[in-house]
Amino acid sequence: GDLTVVATQSSEAGAHNLYVQHASRSAQFQRANEKATQVLQAMKDKENNLLAQRHAATTPAPNLTANHENRSAHYSQKVTDANATQCRECGNAEEALITATGAALTAHTTAQTAAAFLSLATKNYAIAALGFGDADNEYTQVANQLCPITLIYNAAESAFDSIASAAQDLKQKALIAQQHKAWEMANKTVMDTAQAQYDAAAAKATAADQPIAARKAAAAAACASIVAVAQPTLEPTPM
Q1: Mean pLDDT taken over the chain
Q2: Which of 53, 186, 24 shows the shortest CA–CA distance to 111?
């Protein structure tokens, strides 16, 4: 019984560590998502400003003497169009990054919740296992006192009464041990279910991590000539 409790306590600490890891990961994705959202809004504002400039540049000069101004405006229009295209590409890349980090954030938050439930379930199982271990030890002590019975047939009546009382006590200890064993098994089932739920959630979180690096690189490349993108560093998922 003691070895089971020690192993379970170790599992409880492991489940808590998983909770901490997913919480840290969620915080990283939250920061990345917020940064990408800021960059996306900046790109939308910049693109709208460039489109307004383009509209102003397409207004024709009032007379032929402004031919040079019209040519300059045409060149400026090309530059403006190119910048607007870059802003749009940057915005699209940031939107893809926002979608990816949002999905990863959701997945890790779910895994974090599953890890918290697993930690609680493991703790409850450890308590139940400890309770059964104590009840089993008490039953064994009483049983050892009864066996073997060395009374002779003509022993004092009080000696037989003592044995009968001990047998009744043994029965009560057995019932208590059975109750604790049932509690232990029920909590084991809950813990196993929690473990399966966590494993599934962790697998989804790991899968959600996969596209992040590529989306981050694409956003950095698309926005490099427009804005200094200071994305937070995302460490590999520690599983």
Answers
A1: 80
A2: 24
Burial 57-70 (b: 16+ CB within 10 A, else e): beeeeeeeeeeeee
Nearest to 237 by CA among 96, 115, 128: 115
Cα 15 → chain centroid: 11
CA dist 177 and 135 (Å) reads 5
Q: Which of 232, 202, 198 is nearest to 108 (CA)?
A: 202
DSSP assigned state of 232 = P
192 HSE (CA, 13 A, CB side): 6
User: What is the DSSP-derived secondary structure letter of residue 45?
Assistant: H
Q: What is the pLDDT of residues 189-217, one digit of tens each?
A: 999 999 999 999 999 999 999 999 999 99
Name the DSSP class of 187.
H
Whether cis (ω within 30° of 0) applies to the bond prior to 236 is: no
